[in-house]
Amino acid sequence: MWSFPAWLDPGVASPLGAIWDGLGVNFAVFSASAQQVELCVFDAAGKREMQRFVLPCFDGEVWHGYLPDAAPGLVYGYRVYGPYEPKNGLRFNHHKLLLDPYARQLIGRLRWTDALFGYRIRPSHSPQADLSFDRRDSAPAMVKGVVTGGSFNWQDDKRPRTAWADTIIYELHPKGFTQLLESISPAERGRLSALSRPSVIAHLQRLRITAVELMPVQAFLQDRHLVDRKLGNYWGYSTLAFFAPEPSYIIDSADELRIAIRRLHAAGIEVILDVVYNHTCEGSELGPTLSWRGFDNSAYYRLCDDRRHLINDTGTGNTLNLSHARVMQMVLDSLRYWAESFHVDGFRFDLGATLGREPAGFDPGAGFFDAVRQDPVLSQLKLISEPWDPGPGGYQLGNHPLPFAEWNDRYRDAVRRYWRGDSGMRPELAKRLSGSADIFPPPARGAWCSLNYLASHDGMTLADLATYERKRNEANGEDSRDGADDDFSASWGIDGPTDDANINDLRQRVVRSMLLTLFVSRGTPMLLAGDEFGRTQSGNNNAYCQDNEISWLDWSYAENDAGSLLILLVSRMIAVRKTFSFLISPRRRADLPAPMNIIEWLDERNVALSESDWENGEGRALVIRYSGTRPDGQIEILALLMNASESELEFKLPQHARWLVLLDTADIDRTTFEIESGSYSVRDRSAVLINAVSTEPLPADQAS
User: Fold this and answer.
1) Mean per-residue pLDDT of the chain
2) pLDDT of residue 704
3) CA angle, 144 as apex, 274 and 45 as ends, to 5°?
4) Contact, 524 vs 169, CB < 8 A?
5) pLDDT in tens, 69-96
6) Is residue 661 within 8 Å of residue 690, measured between CB atoms?
7) Which of 296, 642, 648, 689 could form a disulfide with 31 if both were Cys (CB 3.0 to 4.6 A apart)?
8) Mean pLDDT of 444-472
9) Residue 368: which H helix or E strand, with range?
10) What domains are there in the chain, each with its CATH number?
11) pTM for this one?
12) Is the omega angle on the peptide bond into residue 595 within 30 degrees of 0, that is, cis?
């Protein structure tokens, strides 16, 4: 039982949050417009309020106080007093218990009730809507913060610091990745601690992955509209606490994530967190009052000109106001906390275009970008942006500053459409495979800035792209209105699973050809977890609310013949990429004799494509040929022969070289072998990777 004095000592205004110093806890929270802030202390279960304290000091828009003898484990929340004037952007309501924006640990589960809202929404359905005022106490339904302390023994942990040119990213969901993995104990399945287990790390090492990108692990809200439909927020893009791990992913403590990161580092694998700083879980002005809205709505959120309504550039109802210094501070403090306390190696920013929005719109020189770029900690990490949002002018691919890499959806769509057989795709595909220099022009930016991917959490899985003509989102309960309307997918004759051996063989070739294309493209490749063994979501391309077998990885696919063979093939593809990294991801310009170029584009006749060839919309054959000089002066050549047509094609090869087939997506049982003739037959919808070493240039043939 806690025993405290009746009032708080002054304490200090920095750092923000609840910080234990060994003798007590300093509490500091930002609110520019509040009139009074109370600290509420609860019993260990968070059920009963034990004591309230008025924060005695207000300095630099920070309310603060010090509680002697308080220690880690203390459960707390806040009540903030001030004007309730929605038309002026002020929504203070001291009847609502608020979660500390800097809370590092949570206790309890939020229970949806109308008392969580600052205005009365039921049963009267007030015509004033959010202009009304609700006096019900929300504390019984609210999650609370917990004071943390202590330190983790990292010993000799070192970040792998893998160069961008050598990076292979693997996007996974921290729960769904291990929820059905039998090598993990039932108690650990779906938890962060499972990521540290030998079987998980062995799988990543077998694939030769260098970095895992974890979908959101920051605590998130189970949105009311999903709970009402008996669904769940599976993806986690609805942040409730920017400093606290998601409680459902933890068994005992946040150290489970630290242990996982330490063991992944020991295996040479980096950890990148998918983070959401563009909005919060509080939704629009009609949403609940859980934290930021109650502390200072007009500071934390971007407001419309009428001040009552919130700007919704994110499609979630609100947009964080990173133009405000204290909001920017919260985001940077959060990023540094995960970087320093958890040793994460980088961040992928959800709706990254929002983070670059200033009052006049997106700006590559926005305060957020400048702050991160000059930060001595954050600037040294891997930084990846999802370069768009739903707001006006929200598509900003290629417009982010260094050192940001960007998800390249134009790469994704070009590869999908080319292998589907769409017309006129050769020019677009050539740009994407060679590093998207038109989007990321050197020398200011390079091919590594292009985060190349075939599939991600948002959309169909790779196997589904070759199985379904259209999305199958019925389970989401939105009449399939949700999700993208065109994934550039194809079923190849029968929509959905089939026993037709010919169709299944074709589907597998397409999948393998797309994967080989990915790993032989310039840029930074990202693989969606489970695509290496053919996982499916049964055609659902927006499984954000499916916390069940639809989304969880079914590891039985990895054990059947097709899945285990695909795993082996992906491992071989990545091995080839690493072997020829000086060609695919060069660190310097190759010194090649004329008339050879570092990258050359040819057709099946070994003829360099002319302008009319590029304009030929029906051309389906394409060769990308990389060349570079070896230390012994010989010329190393790597060529990808691609046939997206419906018929087998004979590809003529340059002479004066001994050509070896490294990978053939139509003949995966054969490993490296020599081509005995001057040509090689490539099956329909197939790709072949070949290699040669030559002592002289290999000019392309002239078109007849």
Assistant:
1) 95
2) 42
3) 125
4) yes
5) 999 999 999 999 999 999 999 999 999 9
6) yes
7) 296
8) 97
9) helix 367-374
10) 1-150+285-317 (2.60.40.10), 166-277+322-407 (3.20.20.80), 584-694 (2.60.40.1180)
11) 0.97
12) yes
Residue 527 to residue 163: CA distance in whole angstroms: 18
Pair of tokens at residue 174: 């921290």
Contact call for residues 181 and 555 (beta carbons, < 8 A): yes
Burial class of residue 674 (count of CB atoms within 10 Å of its CB; 0-12, 13-18, 19+): exposed
The residues carrying an active-site annotation are: 350, 386
Cβ atoms within 10 Å of 595's Cβ, excluding its own: 11
Tokens of 585: 């991801």
pLDDT, tens only, 573-593 = 999 999 999 899 887 767 777
For residue 255, is pLDDT > 90? Answer: yes
- For 182-204, how does the pLDDT look when each residue is reduced to its tens digit (9 = 90+)? 999 999 999 999 999 999 999 99
Res 123: pLDDT: 63
Q: Are 513 and 419 in contact (CB under 8 A)?
A: yes
**511 vs 495: CA distance, rounded Å:** 16
Start-end of H helices in 460-500: 462-465
Quick check: 311 and 89 in contact, CB under 8 A? no
Task: Enter the tokens of residue 203.
Answer: 């799988």
Rg (CA), the chain: 28
What is the 3-state secondary structure of 432-451?
Answer: HHCCCCCCCCCCCCCHHHEE
Is it the case that residue 699 has pLDDT exceeding 80?
no
What mean pLDDT is predicted for residues 538-561?
97
Listed residue (521, 616, 618) closest to 577, CA to CA: 521
Report the candidate in 329, 317, 215 with the shortest Cα–Cα distance to residue 272.
Answer: 215
Task: State mean pLDDT over 204-214.
Answer: 98
Angle of the 426-433 helix axis to the 409-420 helix axis, nearest 10: 130
The residue whose two tokens read 């295996």 is 267
pLDDT for residue 124: 58
Distances (CA, A) of 559 to 188, 565, 647: 21, 9, 32
